[in-house]
């Protein structure tokens, strides 16, 4: 699903796969694998696409950014959560699909945004359930 949304966003911007590959500094075939969910895209790379007109929230959630955000996103918190999810998965030798990771990060962000910090207990509980 993540890959489909990335492809849809690329097409909305009237970019060819090669142009997206150039932005990401990867091969065109790597973009094809990402768009078919055969490969993942690091959160940092997705965030970089935001500066090129990509609606990052739409790619992650399927909702237009203005709707999904509801208020300004704390990108540092979002990235910190993403990093923690990655570290947790690596430490347990677990591979989360991009879609599952996006759902987990979104859920955690929505829980932590009002506090503007990561709640360690809630983080652990959510990751345990996600596994």
Automatic annotation (TrEMBL):
InterPro entries: Cro/C1-type_HTH, Lambda_DNA-bd_dom_sf. SMART domains: HTH_XRE. Residues 6-60 form the HTH cro/C1-type domain. This is Helix-turn-helix domain-containing protein. It comes from Pelomonas lactea.
